Amino acid sequence: MLRKYKDTYPKVAKSVYVDESAVLVGDIEIEEESSIWPLVAARGDVNYIRIGKRSNVQDGSVLHLSRPSKQHPDGFPLIIGDDVTVGHKVMLHGCTLGNRILVGMGAIVMDGVIVEDDVIIGAGSLVPPNKRLVSGYLYVGSPAKQARPLTEDERAFLSISAQNYVELKNDYL
Fold first, then answer.
1. What distances in angstroms separate CA 45 from CA 7, 97, 114, one per listed residue?
2. CA 38 and chain centroid, separation
3. CATH architecture, domain defined by 2-172
4. Transmembrane region positions (predicted)?
């Protein structure tokens, strides 16, 4: 499940759960208390992937990035902050997610997207390249549009969701 690309292996903190059916390749770093669930594919080959603390990537999700180019000299790495819940079958490609974010099932988030802290992306949404999702809102649709401010209960749920997955991964470990 942890494979090298050239001379680089994924680096995973001891408290991280990685399901045996997941595949993580190359320049990937995952911080404490996070979890990678069944059939996740993450390729840190042409750039890098960083996943923060207490974040979870659920079943069947794909994590990838974009190589440096003339138009984008640094390319687009994939960066996931702390307390992020990535739902089932999500595609994250060369984007940056802040902290306390929920990405709904089947969503697609493209190159150059920046998602600020405290955001919910609705299931099935498509976030097109280079879009910025500002803090404190629900985004839905294809292309994703700002729907409304998050309620206080929804904001609180973002950390609760992440903590629920910390507890679940502890059961698996």
1. 11, 20, 21
2. 15
3. 3 Solenoid (2.160)
4. none
Residue range 137-172, pLDDT digits in tens = 999 999 999 999 999 999 999 999 999 999 999 999
Whether residue 38 has a cis bond before it, omega within 30° of 0? no
> CA end-to-end span of the chain, whole Å?
16
DSSP letter (8 states) at residue 66 = B
pLDDT attached to residue 73: 95
Between the alpha carbon of residue 44 and those of residues 3, 24, 149, 172, the distances in Å are: 10, 8, 34, 25
Structure tokens at 151: 């309620």
Mean pLDDT of the chain: 97
* Residue 41 pLDDT greater than 90, yes or no: yes
Nearest Cα to Cα of residue 42 among 87, 68, 3: 3
Give bridge partners of residue 28 from the DSSP assignment: 49
The secondary structure of 97-162 as a DSSP string is E-SSEEE-TT-EE-TT-EE-SSEEE-TT-EE-TT-EE-TTEEEEETTEEEEEEPPHHHHHHHHHHH
Between CA 4 and CA 13 the distance in angstroms is: 17
* CA gap 51, 126 in Å, rounded: 21
